[in-house]
Design brief:
The protein is 44% helix and 16% strand. It is of the alpha/beta class and 256 residues long. The chain has one domain (5-252): TIM Barrel (Alpha-Beta Barrel). Helix 11 (217-223) links the parallel strand 7 and strand 8 (231-234). Helix 7 (140-152) packs across helix 9 (181-199) and helix 11 runs parallel beside helix 12 (241-252). Bound molecules: 2-phosphoglycolic acid.
Length: 256
């Protein structure tokens, strides 16, 4: 049985440390009774030390939105994995569409980041998604396969037991509506089958595949009704504790 998970990347929507601390406190308060779903928040790098003190001893974990592709050395402006580990990061988001588009991340650097996160005992959340154009031309699955194979290249079975796959169709990020739940379910089955081909049934059945892209409290209920959607990756609509709680409840199947 795959455990459900709900997390939120704050991107740079939350752009003050103090605002971030307040939100982390409100969110952790609002979900403090939840023990059947894993939860995490991904603030921007410099907020992590402060947020970690707020979330320590709560049921909400924290992590980072990115990681350096190199362990250490002359890489100006990067944040090394060891530092993130020392800050108690449990999850590292890797290869989000915005990183690929605005910061020229390639499949090769993404693969290096995945390996480094794992080597440092952190859980990589590997993001993949097709563009609107891919979808129109009916080649979305080719992109997903390519990205997935690149991201996971060189991982062994033990690594694969830790990885989380985040399906984030680019055309559904930053919109008013999420992708349709049946469409997402179909893609998640496709991704799980791809994993099965490479790593076998047992790994595929146990790997967590979450969906992200305009998730809100209403569509969360529909998305979480599907067997292969194991959790939700929330952006804008998770920036209020009340919404975050509702989305967590959707993941638990507890909605009034
Ligand atoms: P959004 O972001 O919910 O604001 O669309 C989702 C994401 O990029 O993960």
């Amino acid at each position: 049985m795959r455990r459900k998970i709900v997390g939120s990347s704050w991107k740079t929507h939350i752009y003050s440390i103090y605002e971030g601390k307040k939100l982390a406190k409100e969110i952790s308060e609002s979900v403090k009774d939840v023990d059947d779903v894993d939860m995490f928040l991904l603030p921007t790098f410099p907020m992590i030390p402060l947020i970690s003190t707020t979330l320590a001893n709560t049921n909400v974990s924290w992590g980072a939105q990115n990681i350096s592709f190199a362990e250490k050395g002359a890489y100006t402006g990067e944040v090394p994995p060891q530092v993130l580990r020392e800050l108690g990061c449990k999850y590292i988001e890797i290869g989000h569409a915005e990183r690929r588009t605005y910061f020229n991340e390639t499949n090769m650097t993404i693969n290096k980041k995945v390996k480094l996160a794992l080597n440092h005992g952190m859980i990589p959340i590997v993001c993949t998604g097709e563009t609107a154009e891919d979808k129109e031309q009916n080649i979305g699955k080719i992109r997903l396969t390519t990205e997935l194979m690149w991201m996971l290249d060189g991982l062994d079975e033990e690594d694969m037991r830790k990885v989380i796959i985040a399906y984030e169709p680019i055309w559904a990020i930053g919109q008013t509506e999420a992708a349709d739940e049946n469409y997402v379910e179909d893609i998640h089955v496709f991704l799980r089958n791809r994993v099965e081909k490479e790593y076998g049934k047992e790994i595929a059945e146990n790997i967590t595949i979450i969906y992200g892209g305009s998730v809100d409290p209403e569509n969360a209920v529909k998305l979480m009704s599907k067997d292969n959607i194991d959790g939700l990756f929330v952006g804008r609509f998770g920036l209020k504790a009340e919404n975050f709680r509702k989305i967590v409840d959707a993941a638990r199947g507890k909605v009034e």
